[in-house]
Design brief:
This protein is α+β, with helices and mostly antiparallel strands and 95 residues long. Helix content is 25%, strand content 49%. β2 and β3 form a beta hairpin. The protein is globular and about 40 Å long.
Length: 95
């Protein structure tokens, strides 16, 4: 059964070689490799954190809307934990 999810991913671009668009595309491919069908990708831009987090002052916020099975979230989280440019990830189910 396919469910609709929304994922907010905060990117660490401190040591990024290349553009943010390339990184967003790479993460989209990672989501699709785990079986997600991406509906929409919205780049929300760079935002300052309320407090310093892991020596970072700010991050680039990207919102992904995708569909997939229930077990896909744990697979995506495990895969993106290995990416050094992903600072934080949060997923929620959309009704």
């Amino acid at each position: 059964m396919s469910r609709k999810y929304q994922g907010l991913i905060i990117l660490n671009t401190k040591s990024l070689e290349g553009s943010v668009d390339d990184l967003v595309t790479t993460i989209s491919k990672d989501l699709e490799a785990e079986g997600a069908k991406i509906d929409k990708v919205a780049q929300l831009g760079r935002r300052e954190f309320a407090y310093e987090s892991h020596h970072l002052q700010s991050g680039v916020y990207v919102n992904y809307t995708f569909q997939g099975a229930a077990e896909i979230i744990s697979k995506i989280q495990a895969r993106l934990k290995l990416n050094d440019h992903v600072h934080l990830q949060h997923y929620s189910r959309v009704a």
